[in-house]
Amino acid sequence: MSAPRCTAVVLAAGQGRRMGAQVPKQYMDLGGQPLFTHAYARLEACSLITDMVLTVPAGDEDYARGMLTALGLGSKLRAVTFGGAERSDSVAASLEAVTWPCDVVFIHDGARPFPEEGFVRALYEAVQEGADGAVAAVPAKDTIKVVDEDGWAVSTPDRSHLWQMQTPQVFPYTLIRDVYRELQAAHIPVTDDAMAAEVIRGARIRMVMASYRNFKVTTREDLVTAEAFLREEREQKQATED
What we know:
Number of strands: 11
Helix content: 25-40%
């Protein structure tokens, strides 16, 4: 029996308005290379991943390919596609770009530069064991308040039951592809892929402990934090080599 084919989708099609920069967030410099290439490189290096899709703004396809080539990346790249107005549009386009055999798909935000092979494998194993989907996540550290439209606190959920969603979010390919086809036709707004599968199929989603380092770079302060993590990684690698 042949090993399952696993495709990783890296979403780098956003505008990054909250960053307030002149260039889209995914192209901003992190440690001497574009932000999205860090996530891409780590997933491409994972032996589980057999194929890759990169999703960028319309018109940037050749530009993004060139960035990968310049860094010696792209050996598993099968398609570069362009995103839509919302994240769900970009995911739907990415899934439709998969024209090769695919058993399991990993959907990852290109603005999360630090996916780790350990939890990437744990996500895959959860799906192989029968979960409809598996999501990288971490328990919430802060107390969360539910507020009304006027800003008044309404309730305080039990923090012990709250997890912060991350990516990758992992699914059997045909399941999540069909979910997004139905979602697009019904025009239902969702904020992540697990929510899409829950709304459309009533999917049972497994939370998989990831890492607080697997955060999404959204603001300039986040970029500073990412630089610190990257610097620490490089120093540790240098110390090991010495």
